[in-house]
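Lab meeting, item 3. Inverse folding demo.
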């Protein structure tokens, strides 16, 4: 019979009990990972509304939680890479339960790459603003040029460019 090493060579799951305990631990890690995401999001909201003195404290807490979130994510990846279907299902089940417990109805269902755009859609974003199309006759749509605005709003932009700018970009690409 084959056995699995979970995270360390000393953590060999060579009995049914150890395997079940390992699976439950991976599920718990998945739940905790989603919980960390929720805490980070809550701290981000508090940091925006905080005084400059408290902002540093929130930034340091968020930085620590970011590292903890990364470690938890990589541990889940290692569990999935045991090539055990049961461990993979434990990872997915833990993340699903955690999302249900900490994120369902709270976090956005959009593409994660665009989640930062949804938090401050009314605030100018200096990283994206130079890419936005400018039309002097009408105000700039807050999501035009973003990956979410192009897909979700039906805006016929390509890479944030409209009309003549798109044609010029296509000519330059050729």
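The presenter then showed the designed sequence:
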């Amino acid at each position: 019979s084959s056995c699995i090493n979970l995270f360390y060579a000393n953590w060999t799951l060579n009995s049914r009990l150890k395997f079940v305990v390992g699976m439950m631990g991976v599920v718990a890690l998945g739940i905790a990972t989603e919980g960390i995401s929720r805490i980070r999001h809550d701290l981000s909201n508090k940091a925006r509304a905080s005084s400059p003195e408290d902002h540093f404290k929130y930034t340091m807490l968020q930085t620590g939680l970011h590292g903890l979130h990364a470690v938890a994510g990589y541990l889940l990846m290692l569990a999935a890479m045991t090539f055990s279907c049961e461990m993979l299902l434990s990872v997915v089940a833990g993340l699903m339960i955690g999302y249900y417990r900490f994120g369902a109805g709270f976090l956005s269902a959009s593409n994660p790459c665009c989640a930062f755009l949804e938090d401050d859609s009314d605030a100018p974003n200096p990283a994206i603003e130079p890419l936005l199309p400018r039309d002097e006759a009408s105000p700039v749509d807050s999501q035009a040029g973003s990956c979410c605005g192009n897909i979700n709003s039906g805006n016929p932009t390509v890479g944030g460019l409209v009309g003549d700018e798109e044609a010029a970009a296509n000519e330059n690409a050729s």
